[in-house]
Amino acid sequence: MTKAHRFKGRHPKGVEPVATLHDDGDNEWFLYRLSERDSNSWQNYKLVAARCAAHKANYWLAWSPSQLRLADSKASHALSVHMPELLSGLMAYIEFCA
Predict the structure, then answer these.
(1) pTM of this structure
(2) CB neighbours (10 Å) of residue 41?
(3) Domain presence at residue 4
(4) Which residue of 10, 24, 28, 96 is 20 to 30 Å from 49, comparing CA positions?
(5) Which domain holds residue 65?
(6) 95: alpha, beta or left? (left if phi > 0; alpha if psi -120 to 50)
(7) CA proximity to 34, closest of 10, 18, 56
(8) Is residue 23 part of a domain?
């Protein structure tokens, strides 16, 4: 029997989280806004697990306020496949606060 691999979140240094979210497994996730200087009008975020997570523990994401969507990326796709409830909470926060 093989043990399932767990991944650990890496919190960015010198940045305070802008939000705390929860997944269905009751793990806390911290959302960090990485830079006030946006690249090409995209806002850069990092979503980090407070404890070990099953699929990924770090998601690098970009949000377009003008298009009201996340950039298509491996991270956003993995989040939608493995943790749709976390993605829903993330989207609700960003759409309301960003």
Answers:
(1) 0.87
(2) 11
(3) no
(4) 96
(5) 19-97
(6) alpha
(7) 18
(8) yes
